[in-house]
């Protein structure tokens, strides 16, 4: 097959909000809201996807980070790329580079992790709203209007101060705001529904409500109760990528789609016509084992009985995972038809003409850092991660085995 890849279609995020009663949004998730997962949830009622948070400074300085942290294809839209940054030149520089390949850019002001706070990133940004406003303004001035600029934030202890912050960001030019309605010190528990309503009543831009949603019913209720123009889900989409369709758990067809998406992302275009037996090679193109396996671990949480999950969760090789899926669930990867394959093929992202905005803004801001093609190398795949390890602990706890309804799987 010839190396002919379809161009990406752009989407207007403002129009999108106007077209739907409320938008159903896949949250930014480090390690997890990557191209393959975005492709899956879009097939199940998700209107808008966020990439995982990317560190803007690494992205601007390191070609390796650019290659690893962001991949996309012609069908990967509507798409918002999220960056963590605390300087105008890094955020706007990174935004300008990815602008041709997405529909909007988001500033992470919600991450409560210690390392982020120590670097003055994530929720620490909310201590200095002026910087956030400057970042939004400069982004608006640098990138054409249709492109959306948004902020994902947590709430403060004081509702009025939270509303004031949102007003300030809207005034600076934010297209919409995603609000995780818990404070930085609350990791679980009830969200503050009142403040979501108050914010949406106090600003004109759309508010995307986030936190603790586990079903489509809950999304409907929250949107109705608060008037918010979008709802965003993280945790519950991992275990149930079909959540936005109203399904209470993923079907085997959903797992099949996941295997197909992952498998097809490993086939070079030049080999397409030679494929005989679909199989994932041990060092595949555009897919790492963590991404493939962790999502299956999450999805199979509601599909496989615990004693089988204990075996599955410990697998470490593509071959073993594929053998397990075939033996236990009769699932095997399938090659896409030519059109689907072309649209799903990774775009080659060329940043050489757009990196100059970063260097110009950096020099204007009189930053003295040396411009080197390396930095703060951030590798979200270096370990399994604490989120995944917690899941493993849950499944390894000794308790009574559940009774399983196998018939319902095939519905
Ligand atoms: C595994 C994982 C990774 C996350 N990564 C990010 C991220 O990259 N950027 C961000 O703004 N929030 C991140 N979050 C927070 C979620 O986007 C969301 O705000 C939070 O989980 C609450 O939503 P939920 O109750 O639906 O899970 C992450 C959450 C999880 C579970």
Short description:
The chain is of the alpha/beta class and 411 residues long. It has helices at 13-19, 35-42, 56-61, 63-69, 88-98, 114-118, 129-142, 159-172, 193-202, 216-226, 235-239, 252-264, 289-299, 306-312, 318-329, 338-344, 356-364, 386-396; strands at 23-26, 48-50, 54-55, 79-84, 104-109, 148-154, 176-180, 207-210, 230-233. Strand 8 (207-210), helix 10 (216-226) and strand 9 (230-233) form a beta-alpha-beta unit.
Task: Note the gap between the termini.
Answer: 36 Å
Largest sheet: 8 strands, parallel, barrel
Average predicted confidence as pLDDT: 91
User: How many domain regions?
Assistant: 2
Strand order of the main beta sheet, please?
A: 1-2-4-5-6-7-8-9
Chemical compounds bound to the protein: flavin mononucleotide
Instruction: Give the topology string: H per helix, E per strand.
Output: HEHEEHHEHEHHEHEHEHEHHHHHHHH
Keywords: Flavoprotein, FMN, Oxidoreductase, tRNA processing
InterPro entries: Aldolase_TIM, DUS-like_FMN-bd, tRNA_hU_synthase_CS
Protein name: tRNA-dihydrouridine(20a/20b) synthase [NAD(P)+]-like isoform X1
Cofactor: FMN
Task: Describe the protein.
With 411 residues, the chain is an alpha/beta fold. It has two domains: 13-245, Aldolase class I (TIM Barrel, Alpha-Beta Barrel), CATH 3.20.20; 252-340 and 388-410, no CATH class. 41% of the residues lie in helices and 10% in strands. It contains 18 helices and nine strands. Strands 1-2-4-5-6-7-8-9 form an eight-stranded parallel beta barrel, surrounded by seven helices. Strand 1, helix 2 and strand 2 form a beta-alpha-beta unit. Helix 5 packs parallel to helix 7 (129-142) and helix 8 (159-172) runs parallel beside helix 9. The longest helix is centred in the N-terminal third of the chain and has 14 residues, at 129-142. It is globular and about 55 Å long. Mean pLDDT is 91; it is low at 368-376 and 400-411. Residues 27-30, 32, 52-53, 82, 108, 110-111, 152, 180, 210-213, 233-236, 387 line the site of flavin mononucleotide. Residues 26-283 form the DUS-like FMN-binding domain.
């Amino acid at each position: 097959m010839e190396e002919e890849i379809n161009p990406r279609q752009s989407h207007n995020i403002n129009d999108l909000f106007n077209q739907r009663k409320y938008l159903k949004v896949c949250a930014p998730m480090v390690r997890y809201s990557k191209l393959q997962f975005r492709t899956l949830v879009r097939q199940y009622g998700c209107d808008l996807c966020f990439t995982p948070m990317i560190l803007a400074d690494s992205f601007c300085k390191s070609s390796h980070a650019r290659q690893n942290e962001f991949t996309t294809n012609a069908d990967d839209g509507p798409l918002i790329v999220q960056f963590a940054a605390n300087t105008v030149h890094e955020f706007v520089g990174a935004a300008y580079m990815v602008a041709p390949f997405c529909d909007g850019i988001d500033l992470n002001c919600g991450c409560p992790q210690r390392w982020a706070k120590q670097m003055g990133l994530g929720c620490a940004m909310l201590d200095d709203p002026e910087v956030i406003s400057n970042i939004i303004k400069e982004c608006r001035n640098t990138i054409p209007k249709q492109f959306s600029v948004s902020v994902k934030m947590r709430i403060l202890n004081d509702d009025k101060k939270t509303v004031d912050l949102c007003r300030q960001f809207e005034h600076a030019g934010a297209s919409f705001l995603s609000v995780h309605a818990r404070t930085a010190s609350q990791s679980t528990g009830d969200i503050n529904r009142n403040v979501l309503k108050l914010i949406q009543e106090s600003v004109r831009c759309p508010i995307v409500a986030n936190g603790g949603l586990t079903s489509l019913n809950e999304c409907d209720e929250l949107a109705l109760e608060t008037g918010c123009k979008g709802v965003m889900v993280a945790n519950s989409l991992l275990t149930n990528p079909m959540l936005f369709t109203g399904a209470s758990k993923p079907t085997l067809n959903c797992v099949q789609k996941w295997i197909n998406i992952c498998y097809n992302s490993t086939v070079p275009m030049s080999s397409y016509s030679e494929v005989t037996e679909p199989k994932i090679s041990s060092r595949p193109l555009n897919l790492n084992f963590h991404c493939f396996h962790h999502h299956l671990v999450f999805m199979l949480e509601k599909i496989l009985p615990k004693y089988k999950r204990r075996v599955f969760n410990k697998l470490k090789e593509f071959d073993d995972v594929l053998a397990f899926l075939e033996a236990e669930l009769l699932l095997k990867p399938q090659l896409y038809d030519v059109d689907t394959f072309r649209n799903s093929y990774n775009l080659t992202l060329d940043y050489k003409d757009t990196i100059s905005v970063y260097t110009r803004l950096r020099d204007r801001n009189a930053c003295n850092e040396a411009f080197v093609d390396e930095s703060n190398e951030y590798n979200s795949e270096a370990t399994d991660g604490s989120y995944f390890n917690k899941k493993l602990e849950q499944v390894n706890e000794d308790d009574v085995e559940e009774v399983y309804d196998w018939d319902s799987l095939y519905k």
